[in-house]
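An instance as discussed:

___
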Amino acid sequence: MAERDRAPFLSERDAEDAASSVGTGAIAIIRCPAGLVLHLRDDDPRISNPGTWSLFGGASDSGESPRQTIARELEEELGITPEVGPAIGRVVDREGDRRLLWLFEVETTVFPEQMTLLEGQAVDAFDIESALGLDLAPLARRVLGASGLGAETAKNSGAHDAA
């Protein structure tokens, strides 16, 4: 069984929606010493969920594994090359482009102000409660709400408040 087939679906609905998904990709919950790293999407009406905070990731290139996809996306979007472990879940971006996405958790020692943001308006780190208080893209809200990061991430005193 391939790694991609072992990652559980985030919800039963994601398992059902996978049959009608359009394309594949990968997203990451990125944690740094300051908290969860999110980016403010461009305010461009041609993209899904413009002007909202979101996770990093994107579409897979032809022949690319989900792990290769997220590694490439993080380098392209943030200029970081963290170690990427196995996928922790699968989710369908039903509010966006309907891709089946593999979800990864990524740890980095790099702070947002040290990252090179190449896509979006801003990058910052938040504790989970503050992140859930932001204007999040629907997919990011679903993933973070179901992630179980609450207590561990919220203890991180270096994270920003959403105010």
The chain has one domain: 3-148.
